[in-house]
Amino acid sequence: MFDAQRERVAATLACQWPCSTSLLILAWLFGRGPLAQPQPFRLFVLLMNIPALPAAPSDRRVVSLRSIPPTCCTAAALGAVHYALACCRLNGWLLRLLQCLLPYLFASTAMELPALAFTLLSGLPVAVPFNRPFLSASIREFWGRWNLDGSRRFRMAAYEPVLSGCSKGPAGAAKHRAAQRASQLRRWAAVFAAFALSGAIHEMFFFYIVRRPSGGWLLFFCLQAPLMLVESRLRQLAGQAGLRPPRLLKQAATLGVMCLMGQWLFVPGALELLDLFAERFRTCHTYSFCSPA
């Protein structure tokens, strides 16, 4: 019933949650994150087993029972887009648009379900995993809206330790003062470290299933920090020249850059994995219900 590749697919899906937990443990080693503070036993168990974090005071949009219908709509849209890509002959801009939309719908569905479970079991609010990243007017804002739970984990496990020189300590005034004294070089090194860690984990998942590098996932994430640096410099130059582009233009430019990079480096591997998951699901379904006893 199971072959080697199907077992790798199942193991990879099952290991995504322990990987999220390992980021919390890595942050705890540096004295950061929720595990660095005393927690009730029930909350500790949930933090160790569900990839979701309680909402921060600054989070405006949180997961609640009202999030169930939108989550169901996202899952339905995921199925519709995958069906269109698999069964319809598409080309041109519509094909590229759906190819870029598919990873977002998949990741959004995969993150919103655990967030709902965490909220129902703990009674604590959880920040929405994806805060409408398509409204972003900069690459920095895009990653501030994309996968908020993952962003917080990588910030605690990589960004903050590099920014403060890997010194231990809770996230408080001391860390803030250290951040204020940090050089610009260290800040950008911290940004690169967070993206590089994310890219390495994504690449590891792909390699474990397909048994070869994706050819682009690690590069996709590692290029985000240089892009943000260029974006920051362009913003400074525009300000010095007295230019204030409208937000709509900046949104279009941001989405254009992210879609182009995604089409070049990320989407091919994502489509390959999603097709593999769908193929394995169909094979398992056929075996279970159509094979002779």
Strand line-up in the sheet with most strands: 1-2
Morphology? globular
> Roughly what fraction of the amino acids lie in strands?
under 5%
Mean pLDDT: 78
> What oligomeric state best describes the polypeptide chains here?
single chain
Order of helices and strands: HHEHHEHHHHHHH
Helix content: over 70%
DSSP helix count? Answer: 11
Number of domains: 1
Low-pLDDT stretches are: 285-293
* Radius of gyration, whole Å: 20 Å
The biggest beta sheet is recorded as: 2 strands, antiparallel
End-to-end separation: 13 Å
Count all strands and give the number.
2
Structural class: mainly alpha
Domain Wax synthase: 130-222
Pathway: Secondary metabolite biosynthesis
Pfam family, one: MBOAT_2
GO biological process, one term: lipid metabolic process
